[in-house]
Amino acid sequence: MKVAIAGCGVVGATIAYELSQVPGLNITVLDQLPPPKFPDVAVTQFVSPSSTGAALGVLMGVISHKAKGKAWKLRQASLQRYETLLPELTSIIGRSIPCNRQGILSLCFPSENLDKWESLVEIRRHQGWNLEIWDSHQLQTRCPQISNNTSITGAIYSPQDRQINPTALTIALVEAAKHKGVEFKFGVEVLGVVSPSPEISQSCNAIETSAGRIAVDYLIIAAGLGSSPLTAQLNQFVDIRPVLGQALQLRLTNPLGNPEFQPVITGNDVNIVPLGNGDYWVGATVEFPPESSKEIPSQPELLQTVLEQAIAFCPALATATTIHSWSGLRPRPQSRPAPIIDRLPGFTNVLLATGHYRNGVLLAPATAIAIREMIISNQ
């Protein structure tokens, strides 16, 4: 069975790897961008058109207020799969993927509703997960880098949530999938979808690409913002719009606080992500396009506001050197929840795995599992 995957961000790459373990599938992944690689840290500004290249890789699963239904099931499935996926990839490619296993620390403020957190702690306990509520004394003891001003009253600590380097993860997935026989075509654009009569319920026969026609039994659209024009060709337009995010990398002479305890710190939608050796990612902005345009000019003042907020949380960051900054576009579905994991209406063999917005890295494994089950169920 021939399977084509349009898009090789972290979602497309995870699907490719997951499907590579299903016997009898011939898998081709296409992406119009070059192969994923690390940005040159000597460059002061890095702009990525993909959401993977701009992501911070913070897996807010257990600490999320999503406690039931599909939203929680996807998060839980991904967290569980990551615990087996990362060792699998390490075994295949011979190197580890940068992963912070020291959890996520969410700062609390005077307006915080601790009753909701206490309820969530109990829910998670019954679900087999751990959350801790820290008072200001516990916070200062464990994380002395946090400002002790009265605007921070404590924190919620989630020891089982993770942070994974998105680019390193995607590269590892591609290498591991290649090892299992998946073919990748980078720098190849999907030009069209071949279907005899898109007006009636049917299947997709092939795709036209800049490298020629490829026959398919299944087409998986995992192209983020590029998913909209592909679905439009099949008269089933899926409206996905960009949301810009800006972030930066800072360098300190010494790590913040206790070098042995370096969780991701988050508060007011600002994330401080330890990278090791005194380096930190700080981000990210959330910038929507103007009503009259889909173009989003980046606003440096918004990134400066994020930096100032991070410094308010951890004053030592004021002495840090900025190594580089970057921006990228997140794919946000219009008028429907994110992500979109489903069959394209009217088509038996076109699957959607797109529109993950700010949770692509978090939900990639669960998405891949769902897509695999859709295909297996029809074999």
Strand content: 25-35%
> What radius of gyration results from the CA coordinates?
21 Å
CATH architecture: 3-Layer(bba) Sandwich
Low-confidence segments, ≥5 residues, pLDDT <50?
Answer: 41-48
Sheet with the most strands: spatial strand order: 3-19-15-18-17-16-6-8-7
What's the CATH H-level homologous superfamily?
Answer: FAD/NAD(P)-binding domain
Largest sheet: 9 strands, mixed
Question: What do you see in this structure?
Answer:
- The chain has one domain: FAD/NAD(P)-binding domain, CATH 3.50.50.
- 28% of the residues lie in helices and 28% in strands.
- The protein has eight helices and 21 strands.
- The chain has helices spanning 10-19, 69-93, 114-127, 136-142, 166-179, 227-232, 300-313, 360-376; strands at 2-6, 26-31, 45-48, 58-59, 99-100, 104-108, 132-135, 154-158, 162-164, 183-186, 190-194, 206-209, 212-215, 218-221, 240-251, 264-267, 270-276, 279-283, 321-333, 340-343, 350-354.
- The protein has a nine-stranded mixed sheet, with helices on both faces. The chain has a six-stranded mixed sheet with strand order 10-2-1-14-21-20.
- The N and C termini lie close together (9 Å).
